[in-house]
Amino acid sequence: MPLVTSKEMFKKAYDGGYAIGAFNVNNMEIIQGITEAANELRAPLILQVSKGARKYANPVYLRKLVEAAIEETGLPICLHLDHGDSYELCVSCIEGGFTSVMIDGSHLTFEENIALTKKVVAYAHDHGVTVEGELGRLAGVEDEIKVKAEDSSYTHPDEVDEFVSKTGVDSLAIAIGTSHGAFKFKGEPKLRFDILEEVEKRLPGFPIVLHGASSVIPEFVQIINKYGGNMPGAQGVPEQLLRKAAKSAVCKINIDSDLRLAMTASIRKYMAENPSHFDPRQYLAPARDAIRDMVEHKINAVLGCAGKV
User: Fold this and answer.
1) Pick the catalytic residue: 15, 82, 104, 161?
2) pLDDT at residue 6 is higher than 50
């Protein structure tokens, strides 16, 4: 089975009241853990690659690892560029076999964002590739994306229909209070469901995306801190809020930090308990298992997409 686009996935997700997990990948163990979980539960899957991941792992290696996962599982998998920051990067990924790209023009003016997004959409659609745009800016840090809290902004619902109609995007990432990284909230976690509901009214049937949607699972933070880590105050988006979003217009939920935390917690614990071990396979195998278990939990408890293949 070849790579698939997100278009049919999102239609089924919207109609079915669930969301697709979009998991960031960087290496073999992460890809294996994610795809083993999705295969076990027969869940559709988006594997996404950031600009930083391409630089770290080499685009060819990542593409071949994803192809190996498809051959191994037979799952419908969409390979997506996360936070593409230029037309040139999107074109490079499309030419490299990606079936979906995100062009993030949220740092530009509304008119400039429309112009850039429309240009990417034209090229992508000519090559059978779907495009995700963004309105509103999420705070936080993820790879090369760094946005201060004072520079972040919620999505304005009165802009979404004009943006979608003028650009032709296939899905839209909005800002309703999620953020990148492991320190998403200082007080009580809240999401602006009023914005989501208004966007849904203005774009009926249109797939919405949530970035920065890791829950920063407390168990992993506790293990990391217990075994030498230093992550005081780490807090994510409560899973019950994400499940509520997945039942609405949100068809894609991005998860990255929870993957990193699961892997790091497992490795820190293993190394502390086995100080004489030095074979990477010894600590990467349980780390892969930790990712698999965490992704299975997300598919069942948050996304609701088990058995949807």
Assistant:
1) 82
2) yes
